[in-house]
């Protein structure tokens, strides 16, 4: 078949689109994006879908609740 697939790594580091941030993604945002893309797909709306989530040994500091109390989170 002549099907074409495109693979992308999201949250793997700095890109021209990561602005001044580190470009890393954490598990909670990866799970949220996965669930939303699956919901959109099953609603019949064309969307991208995730094949897998890879967790690394790296950690980043994120202020989860934007309350001035940043915590270490594992990158995904």
From TrEMBL:
Keyword Nucleotide-binding: yes
Keyword Metal-binding: yes
MF-aspect GO terms: ATP binding; metal ion binding; nucleotidyltransferase activity
Keywords: ATP-binding, Magnesium, Metal-binding, Nucleotide-binding, Nucleotidyltransferase, Transferase
Domain of life: Eukaryota
Cofactor entry: Mg(2+)
Family under the similarity heading: Belongs to the SELO family.
Name of the protein in its database record: Selenoprotein O
